[in-house]
Design brief:
- 38% of the residues lie in helices and 17% in strands.
- By secondary structure, it is an alpha/beta fold.
- The protein has one domain: Rossmann fold.
- Strands 1-2-3-5-4-6-7-8-9 form a nine-stranded mixed β-sheet, sandwiched between helices.
- β2 and β3 form a beta hairpin.
- α4 crosses α8.
- The relative contact order is 0.14.
Length: 310
């Protein structure tokens, strides 16, 4: 694979979370395609000497970016872990020319692993839709992956009627998405279902999310990535669940499932189908957390991940 790795120049309306700016890079490959990612070494280690540290690779959910993990990354670094977090193709600061779907997201994730940590076996961590991407990459490249951490997302499991019907309805029109443009308050309120208590988040996080949600909805490329990925997601829910189930059973690595007890997007009961596949899957429920426990309860989430990797 021909590629180059360069520091992120900041040429984007989506600025990195301040404490992660020095860890921001771009993997450049193909014809003008780039993958933005954070590469944050464990505390006290230079990045060039971080090869012996266990590695977590974090994959965000639909419509999000690597900054979703902003509170989790330093906690994992403090625990001795190197952490990579990617903007999937078309999302955030990653530029793509071709198709955007779950398959291409998984392929991009594999490119990142092969380019940045070719000698390491990593733990892949997916949030919501990112769980499907992490699973897909792990099944294809089991030699690169020690284990999977799936946060409020898994296949099989996830949306079912009426949840799947709601997703399908959203595909029929982009009017609801465009309606957020020029309406910061409406865009902010769109985040409420993803959290158990968004208003109680730290002030810096709330201000960051207010700016970030507007950057998303004002971006044509982000809109394209959102709807292209969503179509792919629904197709898998409709036709690919049994194939995922077979691959989960055959997967040789260990699996941790983490769920927010107050998830309003994908109810915690959706874990039942996934847990039934294998007796060795570990399930951890985080109370007072919604769909994004790594943002609302980063300390608890980091501890569960560190224990799993230990």
């Amino acid at each position: 694979m021909d590629f180059s790795i360069v520091p992120f120049t900041g040429d984007s309306p989506m600025k990195p979370w301040p404490s992660l700016t020095a860890s921001a890079f771009c993997l450049q490959y193909g014809s003008g395609e780039t993958l933005f990612y954070y590469d944050s070494p464990p505390d006290g280690a230079l990045l060039t000497g971080a090869g012996s540290a266990p590695v977590f690779v974090l994959v965000h959910g639909l419509g999000d970016e690597a900054d979703s993990w902003r509170r989790l990354i330093p906690l994992l670094n403090a625990g001795g872990f190197r952490v990579l977090a990617i903007d999937l193709p078309g999302f955030g600061r990653s530029a793509v020319r071709g198709k955007i779907n779950i398959k291409t997201h998984a392929e991009a994730l594999i490119k990142l692993l092969e380019a940045v940590v070719p000698a390491e076996k990593v733990f892949l961590v997916g949030s919501s839709m990112g769980s499907m991407v992490a699973e897909s990459a792990a099944f294809k490249k089991q030699d690169l992956v020690k284990g999977l951490v799936l946060i409020n997302g898994s296949i099989p499991g996830g949306p079912s009627n009426p949840g799947l019907l709601v997703l399908a309805k959203l595909l029929l029109s982009r009017k609801w998405y465009k309606a957020y443009r020029g309406n910061p308050e409406k865009a902010w309120r769109s985040l409420l279902p993803y959290y158990a208590d968004l208003e109680n988040m730290p002030a810096a996080d709330k201000e960051f999310l207010r700016q970030r949600v507007m950057a998303r909805v004002e971006s044509d490329s982000q809109e394209r990535a959102f709807f292209s990925t969503q179509r792919s997601l629904i197709k898998i829910y409709l036709t690919g669940v049994s194939a995922f189930a077979r691959k989960v059973r055959k997967y040789k690595g260990k699996i941790l499932l983490i769920w927010g007890a107050k998830d309003k997007i994908i109810h915690v009961s959706s874990t039942d189908a996934f847990m039934a596949l294998r007796s060795d899957i570990k399930l951890e429920i985080i109370g007072d957390a919604g769909h994004l426990p790594h943002q609302e309860k980063p300390i608890e989430t980091a501890k569960l991940m560190a224990d799993f990797a230990g």
